[in-house]
Amino acid sequence: MQQTKIFLSQEFIEKVKNEVTPHWGPLGWVTYKRTYARYLPDEKRTENWDETVKRTIEGNINLDPRLQDDPGAEVRQQLTSEAQQLFRLIYGLGATPSGRNLWISGTDYQKAHGDALNNCWFIAIRPQAYGNSHIVPEYLKPDQDAVSMPFSFMFDELMKGGGVGFSVKRENIEKLPAVSNPVDLTVLISSQSQAYDEIIAAGAHDKEQWLSEHNNDSDYDWYELPDTREGWVLANAAAIDHHFAQTNPTGKHKLVLDVSQIRPRGAEIRGFGGTASGPAPLVEMLNDINQVVNTRAGQQLSSVDCTDIGNLIGKTVVAGNVRRSAELALGSADDQDFITMKQDQEKLYHHRWASNNSVAIDPSFNDYEVIADSLRKNGEPGVVNLDLARNYGRIADGRQTGIDPDVEGTNPCGEISLANGEPCNLFEVFPAIATQQGWNLNEVFALAARFAKRVTFSHYDWEVSRQIIAKNRRIGISMSGIQDWILSEFGNRVVRGYGEGTDPVTGAKIKRPVYDSRAVKKVSALYQAVVQADEDYSAALDCQPSLKHTTVKPSGTVAKLAGASEGMHFHYAGYLIQRIRFQDNDPLLLALSAAGYHMEPDVYTKNTICVEFPMRAPHADEAEFASAGTVSIAEQFANQAFLQEYWSDNAVSCTVTFQPEEGPQISKLLSQYRTTIKSTSLLPYSGADFKQAPKEPITKAEFETKSAQITQDVQAIFARQNGEQEQEEFEIVGQEDCEGGACPVK
User: Fold this and answer.
1) Nearest to 352 by CA among 321, 327, 379
2) CB of 653 within 8 A of CB of 569?
């Protein structure tokens, strides 16, 4: 039976557009236009906001599994009404799905690859079977364990636009077999390829010449790469698996990879969008990874080796100009080689920048000064408490032994604890904005829960993911603009002071935060609204209730749309300049210039223009306002603990910023909150420490002067200048979706 489809009528959309004004932040519309507005080739323009929201909601609502058969008029009407509510909510920017959904939901790519709806993933680096997945090397049986599998999973999901956390903890690395043999790797390119010169320079050989010279050779395995994402993944898998006797059925130690079919740099990527990087980054990656594994012949790969392989994959994905590579490597807390691996400056600049590195701890860990010392120097490693993640939801609900038993790590931003092969599944509510627009927050969070629940019914390419998603149905409903909301709702910050307390394990005296009781009651009630909505919808769908439901994501680009503070983070400053970089031929620059925005050539990157946006935090002039530059490290830890205790049953993403004089407090605070906070990271606070900094604090007077120079609406100017047509493939340069740049946009 053909699936029933739910659509939003144009009549309804026009009605909402006349009644609802989107809550664009100062950077909102510009960020949207260059990040989430897909190009419409038939109309020679990018989407308008209402079109993006319509596409996103229709892509989601039609994931309801009841629509596979004729569900009856009542269900169709319920889902149509829900789609209309979601349109009002998201169009007004009272809440939004994740950036992944805004970009991919409702496209043909989503229908083929449901994975693309999810922000981030986790995989353990140990031999695993590919199973019934869309990628299985032809030399392997589906149930055969292979060292390549987790790296193939990582490569595939990164190229679909997701971020990947991966575990190189000792118990995983110890399961790797010893490297049986080095591999003599040869990469070929045909002289007929448009990428020939570039690939020869990257280390490949002329295909025709090499074949003529090796006409009588038979001591090598040959693989011709198709011009697909899967082809890149399979090439890397073959290069890795040839090093291990268990996965090298021919026993040959020479491998020849032909990249002649891969499209050249700049060619269009249909479906996902953007343009190709060409095969040069792939060739460089294959040679680099082969060298890493070759050096371990006769030995096991180390945690550092496996992190290097993951980083080299991430570096290659970044070479594509529409993808972001976000990785988190999770190592053992006593693995000094892993903890110090970024001190190798040459390798750091070459590829080790590609991951944020964290260590896994448990209740027995007590050497926080070693971690604190490293954090003070370079902001790493972060900390992930797997015991809390496995045995607690909200901390306020007490220990629930084995509530989340399969957790092995986290996503790159740390807000979701994940099992092997499991993804994040996020939706973001701006409670202050939704309240201003007249929404009942219980209804908003119920809509959010249902939206995320439907995503779990997508078609997933990897068997390991399909199994764990069906088991857990994990969702992550997040609040953003939390500092704005608490100030507007309660008139003060949530931490009201500190009382005397004792460590529950050591008995040491600590300063226990005291929270606003009204905030505790409110967020607890909203949490229950999410759980109840999930239970009700799960019953209607006849599926498992979600294992966990809530989180705080770091946000970033999505928060910019609505002009909210990012996740739980405090605004960078009360008044500031936000600098955004554009390609120098971007037609938006003409509109920005006409509107009065200051712009100048970027001092770091050629063919790039840096545009200044004066910004004011919503509560900048209030006595209770605090910014990232003024709030104490202790209050930031206390805020994260508050949200972990009363709101998030997953985790809370937080990058704690600290001043140099606060460095000595890090060890003590990490120890104090080890029984409350599931994951955290720290970075030294940076003001305008370099030219054209992305964010620069300014005074109120400077803000007013710069704002007065902006005399027109850039959206209206852009529409007048471009009429009904635009050029394709422009985006903000260096745009990042999350605080600290961890998670990807597309």
Assistant:
1) 327
2) no
Give the SS3 label for residue 167.
Answer: strand
Closest among 517, 519, 454 to 485, alpha carbons compared = 519
415 in catalytic set: yes
Question: Which entry of 120, 413, 610, 743 is annotated as an active-site residue?
Answer: 413
pLDDT at position 323, please? 45
Q: Compute how many other C-beta atoms are within 10 angstroms of the C-beta atom of residue 713.
A: 12
The whole-number average pLDDT for the span 556-579 is 92
What's the whole-number mean pLDDT along residues 174-191? 95
Under the banding of pLDDT at 50, 70 and 90, the label for residue 384 is very high
Other C-beta atoms closer than 10 Å to the C-beta of 5 total 10
Question: 646 to each of 501, 517, 520, 521, 566, how far by Cα in Å?
Answer: 19, 11, 7, 9, 19
CA dihedral sign of residues 259, 204, 350, 408:
positive
Contacts of 42 (CB under 8 A, 6+ apart): none
Q: What is this structure's pTM?
A: 0.93
Q: Determine the Cα–Cα distance for residues 282 and 234; give it in Å rounded to an integer.
A: 12
Q: How far apart (Å, rounded) are the C-alpha atoms in residues 175 and 695?
A: 45
Task: Out of 47, 284, 408, 415, pick the active-site residue.
Answer: 415
Largest CA distance in the chain: 82
The three-state secondary structure class of 20 is coil
Are 595 and 710 in contact, with CB atoms under 8 Å apart? yes
pLDDT score at 366: 84
Query: Cα separations (Å) of 6 from 57, 82, 102?
Result: 10, 10, 18
Residue type, 4: T
Report how far residue 439's alpha carbon sits from residue 442's, in angstroms, rounded to the nearest whole number: 9
Is 495 in a helix, a strand, or coil?
Answer: strand
What is the rounded distance in angstroms from the CA atom of residue 244 to the CA atom of residue 147?
Answer: 8
Q: What is the DSSP letter of 268?
A: B
Q: What is the DSSP letter of 692?
A: T
pLDDT(154) > 70: yes
